[in-house]
Amino acid sequence: MSSNLPKVAWIGLGIMGSPMSENLIKAGYHVTGHTLEQAKVDRLVAAGGRGAASVAEAVRDADVVVTMVPASPQVEAVAYGPDGILENAKAGALLIDMSSITPQTSVDLAENAKAKGIRVLDAPVSGGEAGAIEAVLSIMVGGEQADFDAARPLLEALGKTVVRCGPHGSGQTVKAANQLVVAVNIQACAEAVVFLEKSGVDLGAALDVLAGGLAGSTVLARKRDNFLKRDFAPGFRIDLHHKDMGIVTDAARDVGAALPVGAVVAQLVASLRAQGDGALDHSALLRSVERLSDSQV
């Protein structure tokens, strides 16, 4: 591990956080991690990191603190309070929140951290579990240019496309737009799959030729096997996409942007969750189309 790289504390070692933190270790960073499940801390230690029993312990000596947790309440839980990041990280530390949360939560966090001398970037990601493992994530960042410049080498160890989108909260706004596009795209692919199968077409052949034309997309490439094999092991859970569709519909309402198709897909995601499929991958939107079409589920 290189001694001249910043020391990193990583909070949240889930589907995305575990492979991302391991990629930092591979890039030579000293990473101390904390998460709620001991087995996931043990995985980080096995990969060459160090475990911490609490947020406070993890962040105490860190130059950079990265958070990757499910939603706004969890970000607030690890950031605030006597045992949280803001009370325990050193002045001058850089907090990079890579969770997908509301833009306002990011703006508020940056404001509160500033009083403690802690710099903040919101840096949510797109690319799912595969993108995290392969270190090819798209990372959309909000915050000060100087802080972004300082964080860039670390972020480039995690992703292939790293872009500052504007001031605090901008990364989250772009992530919300990303989740809108992804959900609508998955829904369109799911409808095409059911249409093709009911028409008696060879689905694998059809998806191959669709992928080579204007209908091709990263979503179709990444989710092709999910659709073909009905394999909905979670790379990105319906529960989380439901949360994200709530973020984008609320944010769009606040700025006066109409999302007519997005609102319908948000309801389809919500209905899938209500039917007990919340823990499945978001490609399981196929299941709701099958139900509506009276197909095998």
UniProtKB/TrEMBL annotation:
What does the similarity note say? Belongs to the HIBADH-related family.
EC number(s) per UniProt? 1.1.1.60
Q: What is this protein called?
A: 2-hydroxy-3-oxopropionate reductase
Q: Which InterPro entries match?
A: 6-PGluconate_DH-like_C_sf, 6PGD_dom2, 6PGDH_NADP-bd, HIBADH-like_NADP-bd, HIBADH-related, NAD(P)-bd_dom_sf, Tartro_sem_red
Q: Which residues form the 3-hydroxyisobutyrate dehydrogenase-like NAD-binding domain?
A: 169-287
UniProtKB keywords: NAD, Oxidoreductase
- Annotated 6-phosphogluconate dehydrogenase NADP-binding domain ranges read 7-166
Listed PANTHER family: 3-HYDROXYISOBUTYRATE DEHYDROGENASE-LIKE 1, MITOCHONDRIAL-RELATED (PTHR43060:SF15)
- Cite a single Pfam family from the UniProt record: NAD_binding_2
- What's the domain of life for this entry? Bacteria
Which GO molecular function annotations are given, in alphabetical order?
2-hydroxy-3-oxopropionate reductase activity
Question: Gene3D superfamilies annotated for this entry?
Answer: N-(1-d-carboxylethyl)-l-norvaline Dehydrogenase, domain 2, NAD(P)-binding Rossmann-like Domain
